[in-house]
Amino acid sequence: MHRILMLPKWYPSHLNQAEGNYVERHIIAISSFSNVVVLYVHSDSSLNSGEYLLTQSTENNYPVIRVFFKKHNRNLPFISNVIKLFRYIKAQRKGYLYIKTHYGRPHVTHVHHLTRNTFMALFLKYTIKIPFMITEHWSGFLPERRAYKGFLKRLVGQWALAQASCVTCVSSALKKGMEQDSMVGNFKIIPNVVDINIFKPIKHKLEGGKKKIIHISRLDTNVKNVPGILQAAKQLSNIRTDFEIHLVGDGVEADKQKLLAISLGLPKEMIIFHGYKTQLEVAALIGSADCLVVFSNYESQSCTMLEAFACGIPVIGTRVGGIPEFLSPERGILIDKQDINALCLAMETILNKTLKFDSDAIRTYAENNFAQPVIGQSFEQIYIDIIQRDC
Q1: Is residue 295 within 8 Å of 279, Cβ to Cβ?
Q2: What is the pLDDT of residues 249-287, one digit of tens each?
Q3: Residue 168's beta-bridge partner residues?
Q4: Residue 155 — left, alpha, or beta (φ > 0 → left; ψ -120 to 50 → alpha)?
Q5: I need a labelling partner for 380 at 20 to 30 A (CA). Which of 10, 80, 107, 342 fits?
Q6: Residue ranges per domain, the chain?
Q7: Which H helix or E strand runs over 284?
Q8: 3-state secondary structure of 41
Q9: Gyration radius (Cα) of the chain, Å
Q10: What is the pTM of this model?
Q11: Is the domain 3-193+371-390 a CATH 3.40.50.1820 member?
Q12: 3-state secondary structure of 98
């Protein structure tokens, strides 16, 4: 099996157990076909200056090396950025030397998100001729955001993309956004992944009782527009009260959204905040729901949408980013972003069962397009092509 060095920008750690979980799911899928080792580097304000902490663990049957360095908190123009970059590169080097000693030289380096973690991939390519590829998940390249800024950053990013053997994006919309932003590369589309053994339909749902609508995110305003969901729920509550909105997540704005729900006069039994939930708990909540709401202002590709598909339930989603590529009329309802009236109407349509959705067909779509074996095999074929062509 090929040895693949993973260099993620985001990955779960003690600092944030949910950060980069979508990257982790890609790597889990890949690990069934290749020998992978993850090198994750991040700052940690609890460390002392000049201190580096390297940890090794086996997770999901593959090794994960995390290297933490002291976060530089002083705001000195240019100097602070140089110090941060120096510490990051030094931490990367420590991690790679550990991996080389214990696991051997990789055949391919796989970067997740075009950022400073790409420096290691470029170094390995030009010193010992290890090819690399990039997977992009970040919505910052979408036209709605255009968040990849800075002349030098963009120049280096454009050069890195040109040196990569392959660049995969989770949606065609993200690929198009990168190309419109003058980011050129050997692009392929490989979507996000869902564990269909965890996310699956509940065959015998409890009949009667209130209908359930679920939303899962960081519960923020700017990206996921949770206030819009609450306002639509208030509007719907003026028509009927036979439903519950379940909000899952524990972002920094969670308390703010709870206060908004109270100020809107929404009763606690109608708007239920669950906080952080494990993947198994999320799967149970989605499986028991009547639909999922994704009311995002921008989205490269919604992971929760795929999880809902795997559970066989329809989705209400906005016409932004990669959502329309995957959300057809057979699998849910598309609405315009920030259109609260449309969201209210779509939720009522779902609750009234005005539209008929085939749960088995929705599930089959997820199995055929987003299951771990499908995604893992897609990446494996890219590795084979890279090794045959560039090694």
Answers
A1: no
A2: 988 999 999 999 999 999 999 999 999 999 999 999 999
A3: 135, 188
A4: alpha
A5: 10
A6: 3-193+371-390, 211-369
A7: helix 279-287
A8: strand
A9: 22
A10: 0.93
A11: no
A12: helix
